[in-house]
Specification:
The protein has 270 residues and is of the alpha/beta class. It has ten helices and eleven strands. It has a six-stranded mixed sheet with strand order 7-8-9-3-10-11, with helices on both faces. Helix 3 packs across helix 4 and helix 4 crosses helix 5. The longest helix is centred in the last third of the chain and has 18 residues. It is globular.
Length: 270
């Protein structure tokens, strides 16, 4: 993304800037975390990156191509190369369909034949450690953690180059979160995909992400190597986020930081 803006009309003739000039890059084989409080623009950024909602202005480039110029078969190809995992796996899995059909769906939509789509769907379910016989069962027959594994299988079945995960572990308990995080790290190591990991949980981001970008009011206010940003935050909003996590606050022997007054301005990029 380069200078990407997403504006929405609001009451009273106002305009809401959900994305306010966002510039961001995620590289092959890395996981970039996007952190910030609810309403800061994280999910809007994810949908813009996948062209699920076209931005008001700015550029979106995918592997050197102008993604906003893609149409027809080229756009379908792009969506095969970039997939999304939602916070609620039920957003990806139709309750009327058995798991195999749901996992096959993006493959069939991209023009792959039914026989090959079935083979790849079964391989994807195996890769995420889905329970035996999962393909022939319905989503409601699984636990939340198991459904999220199936949703991830659906996303990776097309062998994408980019996977965007929008709060994929927030609804899960801590033990299931740990298993999903381990699964994602293993899949990335084997498939070499780029991952954009959206979360409000800095503990999860610290475990999984190589780099982190901090969002506030539609802007990226800080970006860098995850350990560096958490150890030495340069922006007051970042410091406030870190201090809100007891585990990280104890490590830094700091106190809870509460921001007040006018919103802080973005820092200059490093």
């Amino acid at each position: 993304l380069n200078g990407t803006r997403q504006e929405f009309p609001a009451a009273g003739g106002r305009t809401v800037h959900a994305l306010d000039g966002v510039t961001l890059e995620v590289k092959r084989g890395e996981t970039l975390g996007i952190v910030g409080e609810s309403g800061c623009g994280k999910s809007t950024l994810a949908r813009a990156a996948l062209l699920l909602r076209r931005p008001t202005s700015g550029e979106i480039t995918f592997d050197g191509d102008d993604a906003l110029a893609l149409r027809g078969s080229r756009l379908r190809s792009h969506r095969r190369r970039a997939q999304m995992v939602f916070q609620d796996p039920n957003d990806s899995l139709d309750p009327r369909y058995k798991v195999l059909r749901s996992v096959m769906e993006p493959l069939l939509a991209s023009g792959i034949g039914r026989k090959e789509a079935k083979e790849r769907a079964l391989e994807a379910l195996d890769a995420v450690g889905a329970p035996d016989g999962a393909a022939g069962r319905y989503p409601h027959e699984f636990s939340g953690g198991q459904r999220q594994r199936i949703a991830i299988a659906r996303a990776i079945a097309t062998e994408p180059e980019l996977v965007i995960l929008d709060e994929p572990t927030s609804a899960l308990d801590v033990s299931i979160q740990a298993r999903i995080i381990t699964l994602l790290a293993d899949l990335q190591a084997r498939l070499g995909m780029a991952v954009l990991f959206i979360s409000h949980d800095l503990r999860v981001v610290k475990r999984l992400c190589h780099r982190v970008a901090v969002m506030y009011l539609g802007q990226i206010v800080e970006e860098g190597e995850t350990d560096d940003v958490i150890a030495n935050p340069r922006h007051p909003y970042t410091a406030s986020l870190i201090s809100s996590v007891p585990e990280l606050r104890r490590r830094q022997r700091g106190e809870r930081i509460i921001l007040s007054g006018d919103p802080p301005s973005p820092i200059d990029p490093p």
